[in-house]
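Working notes for the structural subgroup meeting. M.R. asked for a predicted model of this chain before we commit to crystallization trials. I am recording the input and output together here so anyone reviewing the notebook later can reproduce the run.

Input as submitted:
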Amino acid sequence: MADPCNFHDLATLSPEGRAALMKRADSDIGPFLDKVRPILAAVKAEGDKALSRFEKEFDHADIPPDRLLVTEAEFDAAFDALDGQVREAIEFAVKAIRSFHEEQLPEPMWLKEVSPGAFAGDRWHPIPSVGLYVPRGKGSFPSVTMMTAVPAVVAGVPEIAIFTPPAPDGTMDAGVLVAARTVGVSRIYKVGGSQAIAAAAYGTETVKRVNKIVGPGSPWIVAAKRLLADVVDVGLPAGPSEAIVFADGSVDGRIAGLDLLIEAEHGPDSSAYLVTASRKVAEEAMASLPGHWAAMTLPQRVEFSRAVLTGPRGGIVLAPSAEEAYRFINDYAPEHLELLSTEPFAHLGHITNAAEVLMGPHTPIVIANFVLGPNGVLPTGGWARSYGPLSVTDYMKRSSVGYVTSAAYPGLARRAKLLSEYEGFSSHANAVSGIRDRLLGSG
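Returned structure, recorded in token form:
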């Protein structure tokens, strides 16, 4: 019987084979760029009319141009339709996420005396407007709604809009609407895909143009953001889901196999690896997969995870040592990382590149995705090397503040004049020369 997923032995893998494991679905979005360009151009030229047409073409939903906004009646219907226990879970999650992100709020302004009589600091303001993209094609995502909207509200963004695709019958996901209203966002557009990114960037008759776009998505979304990066701030790179589950010999490999499926079930464009230096854990995880798949309720999710674990972006990776496992993880720079161990802090110090590190057998990715509090919108595609999770400050802008007293000015001016002359800027030098002294009446 064939193994249920890929098995990669780092000790025997060629450099080319190892490099292949690092590739993600959005690593080559060239074909998507060509498909997305005409969509962006049409939305820019035709506005709401193009959005309505593309919703019918891509989401199979008949949304007239004058019905792109979710109505109050639709919000009310969502609350009536959603199970009470799910509503309570959303309320719990919103509270936890809000509490976490309130701790991230910077001081509105700080000043420090950097030298006698000279002060410098920062001043923070919310971005005027943001567009939040909430995907739907492969699932329902009230979690993304909460993770993107809560920090925007905490940051004090005045205008917040959500873009999310409708179902083919034109209805909206009840969980998304309930989550949005619970957070405090009431402007939701029935628009998905790259056309939503274009609408947010350019604006239309109905859609207000935003200053920044936040939220994960498919390679179509990644391509649209890349093409519009000179029009609007497109935020951190957040593409298809990816995860590494690291497990040492102290844990049951069946748990490792269970958690390997968490991100793999998002879709066939996801990436998911179990990395371990324990052959016993690797074999236990491999053997557990058929049983875990049998316990899943949706055949589509089973097929998604099978496709990932038997495809080019998933499987079990056996490392010759813990050190080699750490090196693989840091080279990969995953979106999600689990440290499955009874002593996870022993491994934490070896990890430098991971957007999210979840420690111990009681902290699976699913807990963090929904109810723990830290943000679940994370950089993908290896961008965890230079980006962190979405945060309150992603919805804010920072201004530097300076103030120099008359007593501190002469010493600073003398040095600034010397550097201005060295760099060849005479107007710079003149602005802190005797000319200023005379104009100030002190020369």
